[in-house]
Amino acid sequence: MPGKVGLVFVSHSGKIADGLTELAGQMAPGAALVAAGGTDEGGIGTSFEKVTAAIAEADSGEGVVVLCDLGSAILTAETALDFLDDEVRERVRIVDAPLVEGAVAASVTAETGGSLAAVVAAAESARSAFGEVPGPGPADARAGGGASGAVDDAADAALTRTVTIVNRDGLHARPAAEFVKLANTFDAKVTINGKDSKSLLGIMSLGLVRGATATLTAQDAAGLAALDALVALIESGFGEE
Fold first, then answer.
1. With helix as H, strand as E and coil as C, how does the chain read?
2. Average pLDDT over residues 39-65
3. Terminus-to-terminus CA distance in the chain, angstroms?
4. 64 phi and psi angles, rounded to 5 deg
5. What is the pTM of this model?
6. What CATH number does the domain located at 131-239 have?
7. Residue 204: pLDDT band by 50, 70, 90 thresholds?
8. 149 to each of 137, 139, 153, 223, how far by Cα in Å?
């Protein structure tokens, strides 16, 4: 079985790095998440040795994404990269992204088997995920009306499902991660209230609480299976009471 992209969290605080590994692990228990926080003596700072060991531990051959909290942590990670073998260095990426949000998004993508590029992109999406403005939907982009418009409306309706959030705490981190992992098992594109169903941070930014209405839309008929599966997951309450 092929490995998955691993992640390393570099922080000046060992508690922050360990806590982030625990947090991300709740949503991506199958991902290789390694903390590299604090100095060798357990103080505040970073450690070249810890970062180097963490990269080695996280590397399954598919690549490693490194996220850091402050500028000097990036310098430590860059120094560690300089001492890696060329073959290993080629598959390690230091990503400039918010540490917590980037780690969570990247971890879920890694667990779904995403490529190194996909995991990097997921981490980088944290820069703007909560400031996205949904683009125009099919109805906004459509010009004209009459009979043709009526046909288009009927087609759009067949590709759209409306569902009510039923689990007590809404689409918080864990169910949102389950939703994204299921969406990633399909090639088709499905949106939920205008957000990409494969974007964890985008979905969490919606703030969907219990009783809220979610509109899921498939891009085309090829996405109907994904659409139905995602709707069924929401209706199930994600296994929560």
1. CCCCCEEEEEECCHHHHHHHHHHHHHHCCCCCEEEEECCCCCCCCCCHHHHHHHHHHHCCCCCEEEEECCHHHHHHHHHHHHCCCHHHHCCEEEECCCHHHHHHHHHHHHHCCCCHHHHHHHHHHHHCHHHCCCCCCHHHHCCCCHHHHHHHHHHHHHCEEEEECCCCCCCCHHHHHHHHHHHCCCCCCEEECCEECCCHHHHHCCCCCCCCEEEEEECCHHHHHHHHHHHHHHHHHHHCC
2. 96
3. 35
4. -135, 135
5. 0.76
6. 3.30.1340.10
7. confident
8. 14, 9, 6, 22
Burial class (CB in 10 A: 0-12, 13-18, 19+), 187: exposed
Ramachandran angles phi, psi of 172, nearest 5°: -80, -170
Q: Domain locations in the chain?
A: 6-127, 131-239
Place of tokens 């531990």: 57
Matching residue, tokens 């299976």? 225
31-42 pLDDT tens trace: 999 999 999 999
AA letter at 179: F
Residues 152-194: tens digit of each pLDDT: 454 456 799 999 999 988 888 889 989 999 999 999 999 999 9
| Homologous superfamily (CATH) for 6-127 | Phosphotransferase system, mannose-type IIA component (3.40.50.510)
Which residues are bridge partners to 160 per DSSP? 217
How far apart are the C-alpha atoms of 75 and 229, rounded to whole Å?
44
Residue 211: predicted pLDDT = 94
- Any idea which residues carry the catalytic annotation? 12
